[in-house]
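COMPLEX REQUEST
Ligand: glutamic acid
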Amino acid sequence: MNDQAVIRFAPSPNGELHLGHAYSGLLAYRTAQDMGARFLLRIEDIDVGRCRPEFEAQILDDLSWLGLVWEEPVRRQSEHFDTYRDALARLDEMGLLYPCFASRSEIADAANKKGQPWPMDPDGSPLYPGLYRDLKPVQAQKFKADGKPFAMRIHMARALEHAREKAGGEITYGAFKPGTPGIERMPVDPMRWGDAVIARKDVPASYHLAVVVDDALQKISHVVRGLDLLAPTDIHRLLQVLLDLPEPRYHHHRLIVDETGRKLSKRLHDKSLRALRENGASPDEIAALVGLTD
Ligand code: GLU
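STATUS: Structure written out below.
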């Protein structure tokens, strides 16, 4: 066993798992086994409005049925908001965050007014047009006193400059391929995200903050996840540099698509693992369906 190597699978219990998750979980698990690494499961449930205990229970059941074995206890992000609040406070003390009181529609309207075509971020949302970036602290205090909800955004240009200074040059990430030694250094481009949300309006974290804090706390050495999470690696590496967190290596795997080439999605109600199980599929058949044969 290689105690230094730690790999995790980190699903969100906001719906049922589909074949894409089966592939990701199996690949992470098999990579851990091949490397003699420890294997952890993390439940990413900071979206308290959409995550539900029954989805979590189904995830644990589906994954053990698939043959995954993980260390206990499972880390559940919703139980660690204080930890994320501390990391948030550190970024704030560096002068890199600001409160943003904008609603989604306010952002879309402001982006439209700036003229077409307004750039999109890698998630397909209009790039944040800078509303509230220069809000006077006294005005921000007033909005807060009035109970106006706010997210915390990172001043990306300033944060990137700070991170480059700390790193002594451009920020990169190390890409690895399961089964092969060595890493390839790859560039990141955090500016394409604009002033990203680091803490949502309802909780003191965003996916980006929670994921980097937890990867560090859980000593994750290798991240295996889908290509849909390649672009967020820009923000993850930036936050790791700013917060002095260790740098895992990353492998972003191919995505499982349907017959029309569309990526599977919970939102679009792609066939769940539960439904496939109920129709009599075996774990080996699931592995074969996603192209993982022994
Ligand atoms: N929780 C994320 C998801 O379900 C994965 C996070 C990660 O692997 O970094 O898409």
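REMARKS: The first helix runs from residue 19 to 35. The mean pLDDT is 95.
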